[in-house]
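@channel anyone free to eyeball this complex?
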Amino acid sequence: MTQTMRPRARVRARPAPSRKRPGRFLPGLGRFALFALPGLVAYALFVLVPIGMTAYNSLTNLNPFNPPTQFVGLRNYVSLLSDAEFGQALLNTVIITAIITVLANAGGLLIAMLLDRPTKLYVLLRGVFFTPVVLSSVVISVIWQAILTDDGLLNSALRGIGIDEPPGWLSDPDIALYSIAWIMTWQMLGFCVVVYLAGLQGVPRELNEAAAIDGASALQRFRNVTWPMLAPALTINVVMLLITGFKAYDQIRVITNGGPGNGTTVTMAFQVVQTAFVSNRIGYSSALAAVMLAIVAFISVVVLRFLQKREVSQ
Amino acid sequence: MRRTLIFGLATVLAVAGCGVGETTQPESGAPASGGKVELSFLVFETPNLNAAFWDAAIARASAKVPEVTIKKLVTPNIDRTAYAKQLDAAGNLPDILQSVNPAGFAQAGKLAPFTDEELKNFIAPKAGAIGGKVYQLPYNTQVIPVVYYNKDLFTKAGITEPPKTYQELLDISKKLKDGGTTPFVVGGGGADTWADMYPLTGTVATDVYRKTPDWLLKRSQGAVKFTDPDFVAAAKKIEDLAKNEYIDPAGLSRSYADTEQAFRDGKGAMYPMGSWFATAADATKPAFEIGAFPWPSDDGSPVTPVFTGGGTLVSSTAKNVELAKKWALAFDEDKDNNDAFVKADGSIPAIKGYTPPADMGPVYNATVEIYQKGMADGSLFDAFSQEAGDGALPPGLADKAALGVQDLITGKKNAQQFAEFLDDEYAKATQ
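replying in thread with the prediction:
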């Protein structure tokens, strides 16, 4: 049977197209690859090669001010395990990420529901809420520094209403990290609003109307109709906020420089830069960067899969 | 398809290989066509040293070395040393750099040394030498810290004259605090963490360097440690100042500019700061009169912490090292440039035969008087964390020390823990 089939298959498989166009099983792929080549080259140059160099450097004691560079194997990674500053930076990063993920999502959803109306005023308000997203993080940091510093707008207002010793929003080691998390939440709120608004506008009006006719309360309609339909928006927001939280650097650099005190608001990204360009320990900072990359990639993949499964099940 | 992919991969590797492995060779020393060499010059801007200041100073030096044209680069913040490291890591170390700490750069061969002949016009030609060679022009001296004080607040608290001993400083602080005035204005917010260092710089000078002037050099040799009693005692003084609420921790959120403004606004009576504040105080006078005194020692013996150096440096891979050095010398020795530095940044030029403009204000003159008294009585010592040369802190440690001082002030660390922290960080920085 097999032997009789084979010649027929050959006869069918060999006609002219194979001579005219190589790669007949995936027609045109070669051409597409050619178009994709510039992008691939750029990606390789600016992403893959640096990642590879970082991975290599992490296995050395590279310090441009203290040559020669020697291969040290996994010593940098072993040192990381007992590095209290790395532990603190990781904890700070997780706290910031958790706060902005929860608050920006909750706030964004609430505001999106309030703004989900077709009048001009609400369209204008959408623009207002989105403004912080398009502003540079440095600009936002300078604005919030002016608000939160000891002599800033907030404390001046608090003193004005009789609070003589207002909190040190940026100078109290127990508060500064949360101030940073709040600033980042404020910055990302507009992004969540826009994504949720897009999600809300995709919820068929008939579903809500049918549920209302069936006697569902507003809360029940939200829980059983609107919220499940917002699953893709939630996925986008959570993943974006996770990534934003894990790469937090600009705000810390401008507002606290990692202080007050040693490590209070240091995040992983900040520690990578400080270790490389202040302490000159590029080998060690490369190990930090590699671990940061692994952690972010792992968490992003796990969360993404979980949320996508949730989308399917909804 | 396979060929296409192989071609693509080969292209990627080839291009990547070129990019990564490429080493920049210094260009020929000959001036480019048109007889001019373009050299990059890294500067930093502060409220005192703004863009107009640098542009004018550059123009004056370039007029003296017409074969050079300068491409000005400005650091994104005041931490020019960290920025220079970033540029260096990317293979773009500027040809000429202003006031970057040479530690690390010099040892790695990235800077060109100046010869004795080139340094003949400087008062302290060997200041900041590394292995016997000078890589940064020792063009000026700064007293760090000077304690500037608000004479009105002193008078209001019944204080008639500045303190001469440390105990008197504490007594004055108590009087001020009891009268509802914060004794010290100390900052260090945002990227300006360094601004919190000056009280400690004062106590290290009086308690450590006075006994052992080359203490930091000894630390590099392992002969002393931060946990030794003298250094811990110096740190304990800061811990106690904060515990007694003579320093307000809320000030740690203030940037350098905000800290200066807080002093101007009368939010504290004393402002331990580098001598560069003097001309700013004279140029924009606050509503009160400002006085100045050196940080006092326990027994009242004079101790004047200073830093001499801080001038221009030249990259060893500059497009034309000799021309770059010639331009750097023109920049640092020019009388008008030094006058401008004096007027804008309160510097005390360390150039032979230089005299400051006659119309300098009272705060600057009071500052120079402190320095000249220190010179006369032989009480000049290094300013901790500001040192350059063989006796400098390892790269990055000054930043760590500034963060540690914040912990001292907020009570997160006591003096002993602060000293242990510095020893740990010292070990990491010299690994």
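from a first look: Residues 84-115 of chain A form the longest helix (32 residues).
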